[in-house]
Every structure is written in C-alpha cells, then in structure tokens.
C-alpha cells in the first residue's frame, strides 16, 4: 500500500509567489520520508480536496480539486506502476465555483462540494460567509459539465 497527500504553500501564493501545490507519496514504513510525485501538468496547481479511485481493472487515479487562476476544476491523475503520476484530464465547467472537497464516482465523474456561490476573492464571497447564507452545493462534474445534485447547504 501507499498513502498520498496533497498540499500547497498558500502563504507564498498570497504574497505573490507561485504557491504551486505538491503531491507526495508515503510508504507505510514508520519514519519513511515523503516522496514528491507531482507531475509538471497542470502548470497552475492550487489544491484543495482529494480522493483516490480504483477502477474495475485496478487502475488507481487521484482526483484533486484545483483552484487555478483561469478555472476551477478537478484534476485527474493516473498512478503508474512505478508510482509516478500522469495527468489524464481536467473536469471543469463555467459554473464550477469554489470547489472544495471531491469524491470520485468513476473515472470521468466526481461529486464536488461548492462552498459558496460567489467567485472567490470578492466582496460577495466575504458577505456569504459573514451572513452565514446557505449557499453551499454539491455538484456532479464531468468532462465539461456540472449538474447541481444538492443546494441550500450550510458549509
């Protein structure tokens, strides 16, 4: 077995740096050092939630939420036999705003929590939080479509 984790330097991002996320793998050995297995694609990678999916053929994929500058989406990486990662696809759509957590449904679809309706970084997003509005949603995202499965949630 192998454990995976993802994270980014959000302080560097806020300070104007790249803040690119990394994906690490950990062997199940006490004291083992993490290994950076982050592929070069996508270039802009700002991670949030992650899920691991194993398909019927035993192929393992990581689904990782990415809040890049130009889009918000879910990056899908295939885990190769040598434990390197290959970026297979990006699941995104115009109404996929503020994705947070992800649960893979199959190799091309995932449930994604959307914690706010307003785009991130603006006054409307701040007001949603302050006013504690039930604007959270759960979406089903595929290659280029998003369908809202639940709405009106407090997140």
Pattern of helices and strands: EHEEEEEEEEHEE
By secondary-structure content and strand pairing, the structural class works out as: mainly beta
The outline comes out as globular
Helix content: under 10%
The termini sit apart by 33 Å
- Overall mean pLDDT stands at 86
Describe the structure.
By secondary structure, this protein is mainly β. The protein is built from two helices and eleven strands; from the N terminus they run E-H-E-E-E-E-E-E-E-E-H-E-E. A hairpin with an 8-residue loop joins strand 2 and strand 3. The protein starts with a strand and ends with a strand.
In terms of topology, how is this protein built?
Elements: E1 3-7, H1 10-14, E2 22-26, E3 35-36, E4 47-54, E5 60-67, E6 72-79, E7 85-92, E8 99-104, E9 110-114, H2 123-130, E10 136-141, E11 146-153
Antiparallel strand pairs: 1-2, 2-3, 4-5, 5-6, 6-7, 8-9, 9-10, 10-11
How is this structure best summarized?
By secondary structure, this protein is mainly beta. The chain contains two helices and eleven strands, in the order βαββββββββαββ. The strands form three sheets. A four-stranded antiparallel β-sheet has the order 4-5-6-7, with no helix packed on it. A four-stranded antiparallel β-sheet has the order 8-9-10-11, with no helix packed on it. It has a three-stranded antiparallel β-sheet with strand order 1-2-3, with no helix packed on it.
